[in-house]
Write a structure and sequence with these properties.
homotetramer; alpha/beta; eight-stranded parallel sheet; six-stranded antiparallel sheet; 21 strands
């Protein structure tokens, strides 16, 4: 019996091609990033190599900057309306091999292989009445002409109550299983309030995909995008998916990072084995080449620590957006701090302690001791003292504090003698920065 | 120099196939209705015979009741992405004749011929990169994959800033002119706030259509649908179109009829030569066959008088929705009351006098005398006395009243002696009904 | 140190005067209900007697049916802008005794005493610049003239950043503590998105109230009303209040009951010691007298079981709306089924298993064994079979089933042999009804 | 019989105290401005001197910058709940004289006198159950506790269906008539969608005010504020008021000025004798003293010409916001260009010709000849050529052009020979500026 939660006991960690390559990633790029990961990141838990959007379009990116996705491009399809890798970009896919050779290579490095797909069936297939595998129905019979993405013109949504609909999705994941895919990021589907419901239903399409994964015989992580996911539908996402985006696309912009604190508050009670609200990729290192806007991240070092602390404590998936072979040493060190990454795999129960427009305090609990972790975030524009009481942390005493980013013991405990207040842990925190403590009891 | 206002000096009057046939009207039906009109209605000013939606789909209506429009149907196109009449439904269109033979027949009866089109370019043409006439651009190059109708799956909006866009519309109207078309109802375009604007613009698409009509060399009435049109864009509609729908589809339902009073208030100052806010077809007589819901109108006789009085006084276009050969005598008499129809052609300045949830009073002015017309509408569920003061009508005295529906002189004037009130004209009006006076000064 | 969660370790259970009396409850009514509770309900855990809205208005209800609350009524105030019980309605409050004598009486029955207040400061006090206790500031200096309730005209919101604001709230709760109040339902404050934020803040007013309770020296349950509470602010409510309404006022109407299932889904992860999302009073028995609409509940017996099952499993507070002395025996039995009430005090982890428009399945866990409780709700209009798989319940095997409403062993387990499905528990459930099982492992 | 349109045959022109004084204007300030107007502006048509908001508050402005209006201030009231001028600010109002002495002074200068009021009845009067004149009802009986302004705390809306409501308004205007008031600006009422309708109705309150003016025996201009007025209610405003604001408060900010072009488009067909959509005061000269932000207008000279041209052609009321005694000569000349002001009194039929984000062209017609006026507005950030065709102006030929701001003959006519285009009038216009022509035929 398929247990989707067993596929992702901890938040998936890896690399995704989008932030650097946009739609243009090619086979050699994927290999280079995988090789870097195997060597430098795998020891710290990073393992997924994910090929993001538009791998079936031979011309992807050629109409930049006019458009991100080429309208009405003739993407590569097999006879059953299924997308295949564009061979000019992925040479090993020649002769119908699909992504199998590339997945094999990634597996050979000890890593796992993931792909992106847009939900739905290709518009071209619907308009030309193409065949589907395992059913007499044709693509036009399962497609909704009214269910389109707002930002990509390739697909129509699939109507779950049509004959052939489940068979179509089954045929997709059968193909992906044959390639050796370990992770599927399904796009244009996560925020199920984004599109009108009648008769198309994004929720039902998620269920079809879940069933197709269960039926395909190979465990795959199911990642849903883009956000913001709808909190009212948390139970549905927890039942059918492994990770789901809780914001729209995240980039190297402080306003977006600050806003993530509110999103994590909303979703903090919805993190569990196999169920990970997703803060999106980490836009660190070199970014934006495929967008014709190559740059080093706009985030300061303090902001990157803030981001990593929040992502790790909240147990968001950690997918690196950087071009890995171009990572500099300080960035690599941020990404591989074992005392911070420990929270991703060995903590639980992250929750907001206090927040206002100028600061936030979060805490989580160690799986293996009574220790607590506490992050003091400075959301303001000036260095300031941030504090939290032991009472708010839910503990009675502290024996020692360890500063996890600075890797040193800290002396930050204040005992207040005021009538109604408990002892307080505090730190002076730089603007946009964080101090992260292991609080030993 | 093309003056679009000269094409429709008065509100267009005629018949439209939609209310009875939905998508299924055929050549013989059009001919039968035209013959009836020539014989019974033409003397009263009715002259347009309009073939409504989906005439290019050979299978139109075959998937009722599952769907109104057949998703991904292969509609008839010429080599330049232009729709042609389905020959199985319009036999005279064989051999590339298009609607010319049918238009000729209608013209031969002394009438005018109109067609419906969906704005945009066929989706099929875009996905298969079909040619366009008069340009090297292909259909995919002018189509927006994000501009679709919410209720019909045939077309994509045309991006006005693309090479070939104006040429495409020019080629359409060149074809329609060659057929002898006198009236074009362009659908999915009137409410320019209905769809997001960037980069597609319904307003720019209206302008392209206007230019194409100007360029085609044949005068054509330009009718835009569906509503509600946006009052903030009145100037734009008045500049480029002849009539535009001021509500969503209107049917034989009192709630919709009552709501039309509010819409007419909003638009009352925007009626002028060549510019007619459109209250939609008159759902009288036999209706609904193509919708699998054939019936006689649900409107009572009083409600039909209310509707006709409002439409005529407001100078809305008058397009009959009934199957004409099945008209009964009383309905025909309603439609051909010359004293009521007089307002359509020989009055101006219709305006609301007073309205609340239970009544409305409207007035308009005669073009040829100082007489006024006054309609006392009872919007409530009981018979009641309705009245209006001469002051509100803007006149000082009354010499006689003529009841235009009852065709008799009326005695309804009351002189009130109260300090601050002027003489009052009144009538006892049945629920949902109207009394319409010519007020002679 | 004040721990607000310790005040309500389990969901509060009791009686509230609103559903029967509206604004008109008097001292003798409160006593009669308290006496009934002490005798018939206390053994099952019910203990709070709550006097709801408008106890300071001598004329409350006298302008029915024109208005629920008397506009600009001169409510009873002490010299410090604090409301006092109207002595004509609560005779024991004479001579400045306030609610102390009545609270003493309730305490003497072994019960607890609660009151309702509107958030804010009396408008009359602000306009006449009345004094506040413990500060030189006057009522006009802490009131916001723009923060009013949409449905009651008595109060203005208090601006938290004004001198005297916290002192005012402290003075209120000091008074309530002196009376012996155990429970305060603060109204017009729970849905913090209901009113504009600048500069007034409902969230800050909640915090002031929390602080005033902490300072007053007497434990009091803090109940916030009306809903719907905002899920994005769950952490704030959990930090400062004990219970908060998750819908607008709930009444004996199936549409409202069905909608509660969606609300409970949203809030299911936010139930913990001291923190209870509130489904509102139980509109059972005799209702509506003060509303001039006295009746027995419109809920069928099946609907009442559905309601009680959901409230108990979800661990909503259980506040009876009925006039207790008029309870009939079957209703009393519904309210005192010990096997159902067991879930309120001895279970945890209630969660939705599956839901669609026609059914819902919920489960929760026993605190003292590995047993599970499972409720199969029929939300449709016909009797139907409802089922849930053991896998969805998260258990592997079942040794026995006990039907808790019928109080009998049940035989409902089906073992399906299909490839991908686990054993299923099912029941035939009447329309709008429920079957509730203890699932023994 | 009262004809409200006869009171304002042309758009009212004058001065209003708000833009310079905010709430703080005093008697000597009003006299100084009146004296300036009598000497310098009256010959050009300016005649109204309007005392704006808060003249009954002795402390108005004393709590700046904390608040614009003093919350819960004890404004001056007579025994019938009617506001009186604060005598410390208006000494001639002593001994119950009200505004009569000041109005007499203004009249003595050959000018007219206006006041501002907030709609409704004082909150204080409602809470203290004060008397009303001409009725036994008291203030609490006609006030709605739920109808408050969003920005001023003085008043409650009056419920039109209550006994005493019309009598209250009659008593107000009886008092104003006794003072000699010629113009009343009623505030917090124009945008009738701003507040919820049930049971309070801003529309009904407007009707009560209209009736009170009709009953008071003295003609008064009725000006409604603030906007944006609701175009769907144009007929109601035209029936009951003389001028109504079509935007929120207008200030010396280009974004607001540019936005006014869209508002004027919407309202262009609703200008007629006695009916003037109002673009708000002209923020020219010295501004903002009472706001603690005294300055000369932020508008450039070109922007001021653009504003005056639009206001004059559209026939908006022209109420100067500047402190008149501080006007400099160039500003005075802008305000008194007789060839531009001619449009206010002697033209009609202003309408938009074309507009996009970078330009607008408007035209209007002379009442006394076939000449047209045409304004070419440059809405962009660079100088550019703007043009309009004779066809769009609706004329066939041009004999001469006169540039009305530059006061010289112009040579701007271009005859285009292109097939479908008519002769074009054009000008090179500075950024944010305008060229205004009289087009002689």
């Amino acid at each position: 019996m398929f247990d989707k939660n067993a596929v992702a006991k901890n938040p998936p960690m890896g690399w995704n091609s989008y932030d650097y390559y946009d739609t243009t990633v090619c086979e050699k790029d994927v290999r280079a990033n995988a090789e870097y990961m195997a060597k430098h990141l795998k020891p710290f838990g990073y393992e997924y190599i994910v090929v993001d959007i538009q791998w079936s379009d031979p011309d992807a990116g050629k109409n930049r900057p006019q458009e991100q996705y080429i309208s009405f491009s003739h993407i590569c399809l097999d006879e059953y309306s299924r997308q295949l890798p564009a061979e000019n970009r992925f040479p090993s896919a020649a002769n119908g091999a699909g992504f199998k050779p590339l997945a094999d290579y990634v597996h050979g490095l000890g890593l796992k292989f993931g792909i992106h797909i847009m939900r739905g069936v290709p518009r071209y297939a619907a308009h030309t009445h193409m065949k589907l595998k395992g059913t007499d129905a044709t693509a036009n019979q399962i497609a909704s002409p009214y269910s389109i993405s707002k930002w990509n013109g390739d697909m129509y949504g699939v109507l779950h109550d049509r004959t052939g609909a489940q068979e179509y999705y089954n045929s997709l994941f059968e193909l992906y299983a044959s390639w050796g895919v370990d992770f599927v990021k399904v796009d244009d589907i996560c925020n199920t309030n984004m599109y009108e419901k009648n008769p198309y239903s994004a929720e039902k399409e998620i269920e079809m995909i879940h069933k197709a994964i269960a039926a395909c015989g190979r465990p795959m992580v199911l990642s849903l995008s883009p956000g913001p996911a709808v909190i009212e539908k948390a139970w549905h996402l927890e039942k059918y998916a492994n990770m789901w985006r809780i914001t729209d696309d995240f980039w190297d912009n402080w306003v977006l990072l600050k806003a993530m604190f509110e999103r994590c508050e909303v979703w903090q009670k919805h993190v569990s084995e196999g169920c990970f609200p997703d803060c999106d990729m980490l836009p660190m290192g070199r970014l934006g080449k495929g967008f014709l806007h190559e740059r080093s991240t706009n985030f300061s070092f303090d902001e990157q620590k803030t981001m990593l602390t929040l992502w790790c404590m909240f147990r968001s998936p950690l997918m690196i957006g950087a071009e890995l072979p171009l990572l500099d040493k300080p960035t690599l060190e941020l990404l591989t701090n074992p005392k911070v990454l420990y929270m991703v795999t060995d903590c639980h129960g992250a929750r907001l302690v206090t927040r206002d427009s100028e600061h936030a305090v979060w805490t989580c609990s160690d799986n293996h001791s009574d220790d607590r972790f506490m992050a003091l975030f400075n959301l303001s524009e000036q260095e300031k003292m941030i504090e939290a009481s032991l009472q708010d942390l839910g503990i009675l005493k502290v024996s020692a504090l360890e500063d996890l980013w600075e890797c040193r013991a800290a002396e930050a405990l204040q005992i207040r003698k005021m009538t109604d207040e408990s002892p307080v842990i505090s730190a002076v925190v730089p603007a946009h920065g964080v101090v992260l403590y292991r609080v030993k009891v």
